[in-house]
Amino acid sequence: MGIIHAENLAKAFGQGQNEVRAIDGISLDINRGFHAITGPSGSGKSTLLQLMGGLRVPDKGVIQVNGTDLSIFDDEELAIFRRRNVGLIFRQYNLMPVLNVYENITFPLELDSRTIDIEYIHRIAQLLDLEDKLTMFPKTLSSGERQKVSIARALSTKPKVILADEPTGNLDTRAALEVVGLLKMTCKEFKQTIVMVTHDKEMAEMADQRIYLRDGKVEKIIRR
Ligand code: ADP
User: Fold this and answer.
1) End-to-end CA distance of the chain
2) Whose CA is nearest to atom 1 of ligand 1?
3) Which of 112, 148, 156, 212 is the most exposed place for a label (fewest CB within 10 A)?
């Protein structure tokens, strides 16, 4: 069984004639490494990632993360499980404007009243080339730098799993390649499982495995 295990997953939106089967029977095991979920717009990529992160509840099927069945949790427990086990990265960086870079990175730890491993935070900052930006505020950073801060924040809790939804959606090609390259590097460095949703062929090709979706189903899986 994979670190992420999906079995007969289904999720629909709307009802009757308006029903859209966003995820239409997906079974999948994802192991350690860097994976891309790709496919045309509307094929179910974001919905699948949201199901993996417990951000949405499936209509049918099972989703397990790190051996834990997410259906055992209520909303609050899910939020805690996510905070401790899953790092999330979005297209919008969702940084706190009133916090500086260091405070943004360590925010999930503060939320959980966890001790901050200062050495580890500096190591992440160094890997992501953010060390000289730790006292700066988000509004003074470039888009690429902001996304690097959100990656550092996702890494701060040392999660086994990182889920990234179109993390390069707001970046130019150069910054996008850098960000995906960094994700790939941290994935190796910290022995993680990273799942990245992208519709961009070039970004998807950087992953160890590409999972192609079409109409809510897995169309094909290509390993490198
Ligand atoms: P992708 O990420 O591949 O573009 P999505 O997972 O966002 O695809 O969406 C899959 C399908 O589900 C689309 O047809 C989309 O319109 C629909 N959908 C997604 N989220 C919602 C929602 N909150 N309400 C209604 N329909 C939705």
Assistant:
1) 21
2) 42
3) 112
Residues near 162 by Cβ (< 8 Å), separated by ≥ 6?
86, 87, 88, 89, 154, 155, 183, 187, 192, 193, 194, 195
| Type of residue at 156 | S
Q: Which residues line ligand 1 (CB under 6 A)?
A: 13-14, 20, 22, 39, 41-47
C-alpha 22 to ligand 1 mean position (Å): 6
Instruction: Judge whether 203 and 180 are in contact, CB under 8 Å.
Output: yes
- Residue 83 confidence (pLDDT): 87
Whether the Cβ atoms of residue 197 and residue 164 lie closer than 8 Å to each other: yes
Predicted confidence at residue 63, as pLDDT, reads 97
Give per-residue pLDDT as tens, 171-194: 899 989 998 998 999 999 989 999
pLDDT score, position 150: 95
SS3 state at 77: helix
The whole-angstrom separation of Cα 183 and Cα 198 is: 13
- Under the banding of pLDDT at 50, 70 and 90, the label for residue 1 is confident
